[in-house]
Amino acid sequence: MKIESNVNLSLPRLYTENRDNNQVKLETGHALPGHDSVEISEAGKRLAAGIGARELPVGAIKDNYSIRPYFTAEIDSSLNELLNGKPPELEEAVNFLISRNFVPDGSVSDESERAALLESGLSQAKFIADNYLAGDEAQKFLATMDKIAAYAKTRTIDPKTGQASYIEIHRKPEGAPDDYVDIDYLMKKYDPESANKITEILKDALNGGSSAGFAEILMDFNQKLAQNPQWSREYRAQANHVNTVLKNTEINNRFEGADTSNMTAFLHDMDSKFRNTSFESKDFLIRNIQYFALILGKQI
Q: Who's near 231: CB < 8 A, 6+ residues apart?
């Protein structure tokens, strides 16, 4: 985290409310390469999603967000390609949107708030596309962010355990053919005993042991796979279903159409849209978008 000493607090209420109490403590995230960070405390990562907003002096602290959740090789490769050569704060802002707006884990338990953060994140992604990317790059970026947002919308809660889960995305290496089958996944599902043996062999090899038996187990499972073609068919059907869900999920964004001509106009317009929501407190939305602006180096 960095302490920002030159933040302008003279703009309208979106940027100035609730800045008198500075008792909150924040927890640093993982720093991006090239970004210095200073430990502030051990609690408060969820502040970026707006929680605890009433206690934070507006604009006083800028957090470095870095670790981007991995979804698929295709999504990861697309974002790496689009962000290559761009300012480091742009990658940080994209990672922020994904980890704090699209999949904020357990830091936001209220489903209506999660939905609003996701929609605000889509509008923030549009700001990035309009101001930092152009042409095909902008379209590809928005398509990729839409796919991540669609994945986020598959979140369900187990009523018995309270645990959250998302649609399972089968991993496919970059450049793999459309009919690719993940042997590791199939072995764990249909032959867990062999999968456990493979795991033990690999652990032993990492500790200096031999990898004896590895090839034999793979050959044996390939024979089982040939004898059970339905395994591969089911795998491909599941993969196609996931792709269809991610491509066809539509999200009605209540914040769509915000002015993205510049950050000041964007924040003002989003503020107006926030105030038209039914939430008693808009702080979680206001804080989230303030962090977005600060990450991009925009004074608020």
A: 186, 189, 190, 225
The number of C-alpha atoms within 13 Å of 158 and in the hemisphere containing its C-beta is 7
pLDDT digits (tens, 9 = 90+) for 12-68: 334 333 333 333 222 323 332 332 222 323 333 333 344 333 344 434 444 545 678
Q: What tokens appear for 156 in the block?
A: 């369900």
Read off the pTM: 0.72
Judge whether 97 and 121 are in contact, CB under 8 Å: yes
Distance CA 163, CA 142 (A): 30
Q: Residue ranges of the domains in the chain?
A: 1-153+252-300, 183-248
Can you tell me the distance from the alpha carbon of 246 to that of 152, in angstroms, rounded to the nearest whole number? 10
Contact 104, 133 (CB under 8 A): no
Burial class from Cβ neighbours inside 10 Å (0-12, 13-18, 19+) for residue 34 reads exposed
**Residue pair 39/272 in contact by the 8 Å Cβ criterion:** no
Burial class (CB in 10 A: 0-12, 13-18, 19+), 258: buried
254-269 pLDDT tens trace: 999 999 999 999 999 9
